[in-house]
């Protein structure tokens, strides 16, 4: 709780608002950031039918629009029409964690958004910085969130660097040397990719997860 100094002005007066903002502004900013993240996710969910695959790009360095569009178009090559609308659409969703002093509130909001995304339809592919991959994969619940990389890694890539859950299951694999990413001007050395488990019996979820696996394999090619 914020420490109070001096007499508290009468509520909702000009002096009270100044007092409130001085001692409680970070609480307000933190709550607002969480609300914005959750509402934004809910709005995206409402239109989720138009996406057959969602790539969650959880990397500190933000991609510019040109690279974002180019990567979406590249991944469309490996994506099937999961929703059956006759089109193939990929959505690259950026969640750029700051991981520095002063970004704690926004990082918390992004963490909430990220965790909500772990249960959304079509949202099976996640790319992380190494530090964030370690944090996400080594949480207690990660063993029931991400696929075992040994189930989908292409033959001959068994020696790739991986990050494992606390119970020893490899969940994220290094993208270092990715020909696709490097060709688009996206540094890959510090990046890791993970595929989420499928919790649904719906056919479109299975199709989208398979697209995520094919896309992940394509991104791993050197």
Please, could you describe this protein's structure?
The protein has helices at 14-46, 65-76, 104-117, 130-137, 179-183, 203-220; strands at 53-58, 90-94, 123-129, 162-164, 170-174, 191-195. The chain is α/β, with parallel strands linked by helices. Helix 1 (14-46) runs parallel beside helix 3. Mean pLDDT is 83; it is low at 45-49.
Brief rundown of the structure:
This protein has helices spanning 14-46, 65-76, 104-117, 130-137, 179-183, 203-220, and strands at residues 53-58, 90-94, 123-129, 162-164, 170-174, 191-195. It has 222 residues and is an alpha/beta fold.
How would you summarize the topology of this molecule?
Elements: H1 14-46, E1 53-58, H2 65-76, E2 90-94, H3 104-117, E3 123-129, H4 130-137, E4 162-164, E5 170-174, H5 179-183, E6 191-195, H6 203-220
Parallel strand pairs: 1-2, 1-3
Antiparallel strand pairs: 3-6, 4-5, 5-6
Helix pairs in contact: 1-3
Give the averaged pLDDT, no decimals.
Answer: 83
Strand residue content: 5-15%
Spell the H/E element sequence: HEHEHEHEEHEH
Question: Which segments are poorly predicted (pLDDT under 50) over 5 or more consecutive residues?
Answer: 45-49
Output the radius of gyration.
20 Å
Distance between the ends: 52 Å
How would a crystallographer describe the biggest sheet?
Answer: 6 strands, mixed
How much helix is in the residues? 40-55%
Q: Total number of β-strand segments?
A: 6
Neighbour order of strands in the largest sheet: 2-1-3-6-5-4
What structural category do the secondary elements indicate? alpha/beta
The shape is: globular
Number of helices: 6
């Amino acid at each position: 709780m914020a420490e109070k100094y001096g007499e508290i002005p009468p509520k909702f007066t000009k002096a009270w608002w100044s007092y409130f903002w001085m001692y409680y502004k970070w609480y307000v900013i933190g709550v607002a950031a969480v609300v914005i993240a959750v509402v934004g996710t809910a709005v995206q969910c409402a239109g989720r039918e138009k996406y057959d695959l969602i790539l969650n790009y959880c990397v500190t360095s933000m991609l510019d629009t040109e690279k974002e569009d180019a990567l979406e178009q590249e991944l469309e090559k490996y994506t099937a029409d999961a929703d059956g609308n006759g089109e193939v659409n990929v959505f690259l969703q950026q969640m750029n964690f700051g991981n520095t002093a002063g970004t704690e509130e926004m990082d918390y909001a992004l963490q909430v958004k990220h965790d909500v995304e772990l249960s959304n339809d079509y949202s099976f592919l996640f790319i992380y910085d190494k530090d964030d991959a370690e944090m996400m994969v080594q949480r207690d619940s990660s063993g029931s969130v991400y696929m075992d990389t040994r189930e989908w890694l292409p033959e001959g890539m068994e020696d790739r660097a991986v990050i494992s859950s606390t119970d020893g299951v490899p969940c994220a694999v290094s993208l270092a040397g990715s020909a696709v990413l490097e060709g688009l001007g996206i540094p890959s050395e510090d990046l890791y990719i993970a595929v989420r488990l499928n919790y649904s019996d719906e056919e479109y979820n299975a199709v989208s997860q398979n697209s995520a696996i094919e896309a992940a394999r394509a991104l791993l090619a050197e």
